[in-house]
Amino acid sequence: MEFDLEAEIAAWRDALQKANHLDTEMIQELEDHLRDEIESLVQTGLREDEALIIGIRRLGNAREIGRELAHVNSDKLWKHLFEPPTADLNPREVAWIVAAALLAAFLGKIPLLFGVSLNDAGWDVYARNASLFVAPILMVAYVLKSGYRPARGAVLFAAVISAALATNLYPFRPGSDTSLLLALHLPLLMWLGVGLAYCGDEWQTVRAPVDFIRFTGEFFLYSVLILCGGGVLTALIATFFEAIDIPSESWVIEYVAFSGLLATPVVAAYLVEKKRSLIENLAPVLARIFIPLFVLMMIGYIAAVLIQQKSIVQDRDMLIVIDVLLLLVVGMVLYDLSARGESEAFSFAHGLNISLIAAAILIDAIALYGILGRLSEYGFTPNRVAALGENVLLLGNLLVLGAAYVRMARAGSGLSHLWLWQVRYFAVYAAWFTFVVFALPPLFGFR
Amino acid sequence: MTINRDLVAASATPLLLALLDTEESYGYRIIQRIKESSNGAIEWSEGMLYPVLHRLEKRGLVSSSWKVSEQGRRRKYYALTQKGREELQRQRREWLAVQGTLHRIGFMAPANGE
How far away is chain A from the Cα of B47, in angstroms, using its nearest Cα? Predict the structure, then answer.
């Protein structure tokens, strides 16, 4: 095979970008340096491929750069290498984020205008509407940022309005199953809407949706971290005020916890973009710890089921547990993949992902085999229809992923084919979520 | 002869400031220049140079600009700023003080060549 210097340099650049949080300018600078090095080595009589190897070796990878500098200088000089130049918070941006977070908290007070307060009776009104307080703000922000065509923005707007109307005009009985299902599915539908806004006019390409998957994973991790911190803060505030005999439970929940909850997604979305490198390096590590553990656990479970000869579906709600498991598997695999380069060749990590997918499909197949026969016996309830639908949906997703993976392993091709199918599959999700939100409640008489 | 790491690290900033005072330059050339000027005694690694350059830029002592090299590539050049020249003056006085002390204390006495 002929040696292609440009391709080799591009691969080196990709690797550098992925392994370290260097910004593009820094990488461009290092690339220029590498080319200088190669040119001068070629002039001394080396071949291009030899010069490339020596040049890269001299440049070292940036991880070594960091380590070396930690020794050389106690001034923690190396930290400056890793600090993106825009790391300082821009006061104007911060003002916007604070305003957006406050707006979310204010939107959350709209039900009060209709005399619905956050108590036992009003609880499910808030639960159903929760995503409507936040997601539109994110959509507007991304629509503005990505330079959306107004027509498409209007379609998105109309979709949000119709969801809001359905959510609040459907005559739900308080605490009914269909109400809870809507409360669970509307955020997912809204999130797909945020995704459309996020991808802007590039939503038909593969790159933008994949970027949104990565965004979703990081958004999730950031939200969890912020909520943990917020929970501790809220508990402390309540305890302190109780200690001086100021009853705090009601206003702490109504204002502090409530606004905090609504502000979290806004802040998390901002942080994902701003402090990208922080989580970007944490999440793949988490994935690499947990994927093997999940594989082991699931194989153990399958073995136990086979040995015990018992039906997996002892409990009629087992399907929901299995749904959660499948969701986790799909989420982990997609997130792990989104953090990888598109041209990455097949490797051990991919093998692990495949075994994860295969084990999940197997467990689901056993569960479905057990439950389908008894479904008529149990009777159709909204929850069971939703759980079954989700299950089929996730199983389909796993099959798509598995098939694309097998093809990738056979053809030795990159991930682009897999992503193409995954992105298409999101349309199936959107259709199902729309069904659960708009059609399921009337079908079951809002019970 | 090679110089130990601590001394290389300590002299990095003054050398850089002084070099950029004479000419605008870029990473690869800076390393070459320092190597030539020290007869090979000081060989900076890229892993050391770039962080120092970027820190100096952050402190406003050097400024950078993208230009096109003779080979037609985009290349980042660094130049000394006014603030950098002042810092160079300050550091020069410090080094002269150290050098003078070394001299007077007899450290440099057996000047019978290398």
Answer: 4
Q: What is the CA radius of gyration of chain A?
A: 26
Task: For chain A, give every domain's residue range.
Answer: 5-74, 91-274, 283-414
Instruction: Give chain A positions within 8 Å (CB) of B75.
Output: 32
Contact status of A325 with chain B (Cβ, < 8 Å): no
Mean pLDDT by 10 residues, chain A (447 residues): 77 70 74 88 88 81 47 37 48 86 88 79 84 90 78 86 90 84 92 88 75 86 91 87 78 80 90 72 76 89 80 66 87 81 65 89 83 71 84 92 84 76 90 91 84
ipTM given for this complex: 0.81
Name the amino acid, one letter, at A299: I
For A189, how many CA atoms within 13 A lie in the half-sphere containing its CB? 27
What does pTM read for this prediction?
0.64
B35-68 burial, b if ≥16 CB within 10 A, otherwise e?
Answer: eeebeeebebbbbbbbbbbbbbbeeebbbbeeee
CA-based nearest distance A201→chain B, Å: 30
The rounded distance, in Å, linking the Cα atoms of B49 and A77 is 11
Question: What CATH fold (topology level) applies to the domain A283-414?
Answer: de novo design (two linked rop proteins) (1.20.1440)
